[in-house]
Design brief:
The protein is 42% helix and 23% strand. It is of the alpha+beta class and 224 residues long.
Length: 224
């Protein structure tokens, strides 16, 4: 799919991204983004795909006839390690843009660690720690689990074993992610405010009855 410089500028405007924001999310240099938008540089196929993918994670859809719009309600599937990293890119994008609450329940952190590369693990936990003052990040683990890799920006509590399920859910912004670990990590991502709010309420009920672990510090590297 081809996109124009006008579409890129319009897309940034819709979600209040600067050229620096777009560069960070695509891995491109800021001057490259600027030159593309000024028409001084014609992007190759790989560059266009990076830009489209970044905006897709930000909730932007490019249309025919140079149209751009915010994606309203949708269901997406992320499958495999690279897609799992894209899911965490979306979490960070929402957290860094609008902040607010991020609630994660029924988590086994070691499975999350196995689902992504170590280098990305460390990168993600670092960037989330940098914005910790703007977010309310809470995680529910099974009672007795003392692995808290994201404690630099997240608060952990324990769910009673009878309440703990083996299917994690991740609520942030107007998104709900249902996560499965079978042969590879898979996320069913639902973008719907009512669904997200429903699971947010479910989480807060669980959180109210959960126990505070005696120790809340990381045992080794992690991500979230």
């Amino acid at each position: 799919m081809l996109i124009t410089a006008d579409q890129i500028r319009a897309a940034r405007g819709l979600i209040n991204w600067s050229q620096t924001d777009l560069a960070h999310r695509t891995g491109l240099a800021v001057p490259t983004i600027a030159n593309i938008e000024l028409g001084k540089q014609i992007p190759g196929k790989g560059t266009i795909e990076k830009i489209i993918d970044a905006f897709a994670l930000g909730g932007i859809v490019f249309l025919e006839n140079e149209g751009v719009q915010k994606q309203k309600e949708s269901v997406q599937t992320f499958s495999g390690k690279k897609d799992f990293e894209k899911f965490f890119d979306l979490v960070y994008s929402v957290a860094s843009t609008i902040g607010g609450s991020i609630y994660v329940s029924n988590v086994d952190e070691k499975l999350f660690d196995e689902g992504i590369e170590n280098s990305f693990d460390e990168f993600h936990i670092g960037r989330m720690t940098e914005i910790r003052k703007n977010i309310d990040f809470r995680v529910l683990l099974k009672e007795g689990d003392t692995y808290f890799p994201a404690s630099s920006y997240a608060t952990y509590k324990w769910l009673d074993e009878k309440q703990f399920a083996n299917v994690p859910f991740y609520v942030f912004g107007n998104y709900l992610g249902i996560i499965f670990f079978i042969e590879e990590p898979t996320v069913i991502l639902i973008k719907n405010q009512n669904v997200a709010d429903l699971y947010r309420k479910k989480f807060l009920i669980q959180w109210k009855g959960a126990k505070t672990p005696p120790q809340n510090e990381p045992k080794k590297k992690g991500r979230k």
